[in-house]
Amino acid sequence: MLRYDTSRFIDLNGEIIHHFIFVSSFSEYTVVDIANLLKIDPAIPPNRACLLSCGVSTGVGAAWKTANVEPGSTVAIFGLGCIGLAVAEGARLCGATRIIGVDIKPKKFEIGKKFGITDFVHAGECENKSVSQVIIEMTGGGANYCFEYVGMGKNNYVRSGQARI
């Protein structure tokens, strides 16, 4: 790990080029240790392969490593984009028996079924109830684990009230 305010990169004039988390993920070229490299099959398009290194590992890791989802548990996931779907896959691999997906796009439920989503809540169509109330009613008290990957601050339907305590 480099010290604060240092860099592995300099420009042609010797000036430090600052980068994000010492990886420079938005750079065209970068320098990394060989331990962090993986050869990608040329048949896999780069715009698909890049998801594995960030979105998929973040989501699966959140369920599997960070939360340590237990077998037989109920999981609620807010936002069914790349990371949310990866959380569903991680929860499924951990043995969760009920995985509730929450989103504003119903077509994501069909996609989510392939990743283990068993139930769907349309966040914009809960009649006069909050999403939290709907989940509490569906589960008889709330989900054991809740994950939020909405990505938009204006979607304020995400609350901690739907989790069992």
UniProtKB/TrEMBL annotation:
An annotated Gene Ontology molecular function: S-(hydroxymethyl)glutathione dehydrogenase [NAD(P)+] activity
The Alcohol dehydrogenase-like C-terminal domain, residue ranges: 83-153
SUPFAM superfamilies (UniProt xref): NAD(P)-binding Rossmann-fold domains
One of the record's GO cellular component terms: cytosol
GO BP term (any one): formaldehyde catabolic process
Domain of life according to the entry: Eukaryota
InterPro entries named among the record's database cross-references: ADH-like_C, NAD(P)-bd_dom_sf
Cofactor(s) this protein cannot do without: Zn(2+)
Keywords carried by this UniProt record: Metal-binding, Zinc
Subunit relationships: Homodimer.
Name the record gives this protein: Alcohol dehydrogenase-like C-terminal domain-containing protein
Lineage, top ranks: Eukaryota, Viridiplantae, Streptophyta, Embryophyta, Tracheophyta
